[in-house]
């Protein structure tokens, strides 16, 4: 009797996690919105990256492998 409840709870947790991860990212109000880097907007990225020369800048690249 408890096994179907546990399986159902696990399935619900997986569905909710997938839904949460599928939502668009949010940023603080003072930060510009998130943008996906593509070959079409590299120049815009370079301009924003080089705008504040006195501030430290970091580029993080994440790969699923």
Jot down its keywords.
single chain, 65 residues, mainly alpha, 2 helices, 0% strand
Write a structural description.
By secondary structure, the protein is an all-alpha fold. The chain has a domain at 1-29. The chain is 48% helix and 0% strand. The protein has helices spanning 2-22, 42-51. The protein starts with a helix and ends in a 14-residue tail after the last helix. The model has no long low-confidence stretch (mean pLDDT 86).
Brief write-up:
The chain is an all-alpha fold. It contains two helices and no strands. It has a domain of 29 residues.
Please describe the topology of this protein.
Blueprint: H1 2-22, H2 42-51
Counting helices, strands and paired strands, the structural category is mainly alpha
Instruction: Report the average pLDDT across residues.
Output: 86
Instruction: Provide a count of the helices.
Output: 2
* SSE string, helices as H and strands as E: HH
Work out the oligomeric state of the chains in this entry.
single chain
DSSP E strands, number: 0
Shape: elongated
- Structural Rg: 20 Å
